Amino acid sequence: MDTRVKICGINSQQSSEAAVAAGAQYLGFVFFPKSPRNVSLELARDLALDVPVGVAKVALVVNSTDEALDQLTDTVPIDILQLHGSEDLERVKAIRARYGLPVMKAVGVSSPQDVKALDAYGLVSDQVLVDAKAPKGAALPGGNGLAFDWRLISKRGWNAPWMLAGGLTPENVVQAIQLTGAKQVDVSSGVESAPGVKDPKKIKAFIDAIRAA
Ligand SMILES: O=C(O)c1ccccc1N[C@@H]1O[C@H](COP(=O)(O)O)[C@@H](O)[C@H]1O
């Protein structure tokens, strides 16, 4: 399978190099202080500067203000903004216009109603990220290692390219792709040895499983 892969939660040179060596097309940097994967602007800048041309650097933010996004985009050479909070359609449009960067809006899914919300976001985003909905009261709106019922989006498409996320692992990613038809997948917890600690062997196993299928 030639599915494109995003490894999210890159927070060290080792994890960045492991993801690139394994063949990831996207590296995600988390800018959300409550996350165990949170990176400072300075560390993200240093890591991003070393990423080879052709691998996209994605900044994951959650309900960020313009001030925070100004600082981020002034400091870190990023290629895509991933909006993983409760940003509404107007906010997505405003961010896209202000920064001139491709925007990927994440939407949490646990029911057919959630899937409908993706239609509207697909009209204002460059990509949509279809993730599992975080449980009520969870500290993080994503990155919880939880999958959703993939049958909810089986054979679906949106007005923008889309990426599948939520609880993917080296063991289940091929089945998830086969069921949903995803051409892009995103993983964080499933390639870690502990929250916030990427495991180079699991990163390689994740991408190898896809390529071997
Ligand atoms: O990874 C995080 O810490 C995170 C924090 C806040 C919002 C989203 C986050 N991660 C994203 O969540 C999905 C699913 O992750 P997982 O594979 O289930 O752990 C993925 O898009 C991550 O980029």
TrEMBL record:
GO terms for biological process: L-tryptophan biosynthetic process. It holds the Pfam family PRAI. It catalyses: N-(5-phospho-beta-D-ribosyl)anthranilate = 1-(2-carboxyphenylamino)-1-deoxy-D-ribulose 5-phosphate. Pathway: Amino-acid biosynthesis; L-tryptophan biosynthesis; L-tryptophan from chorismate: step 3/5. The keyword Mitochondrion does not apply. GO terms for molecular function: phosphoribosylanthranilate isomerase activity. Its EC number is 5.3.1.24. Keywords: Amino-acid biosynthesis, Aromatic amino acid biosynthesis, Isomerase, Tryptophan biosynthesis. Residues 5-208 form the N-(5'phosphoribosyl) anthranilate isomerase (PRAI) domain. Belongs to the TrpF family. This is N-(5'-phosphoribosyl)anthranilate isomerase. It comes from Pacificibacter maritimus. The gene is trpF.
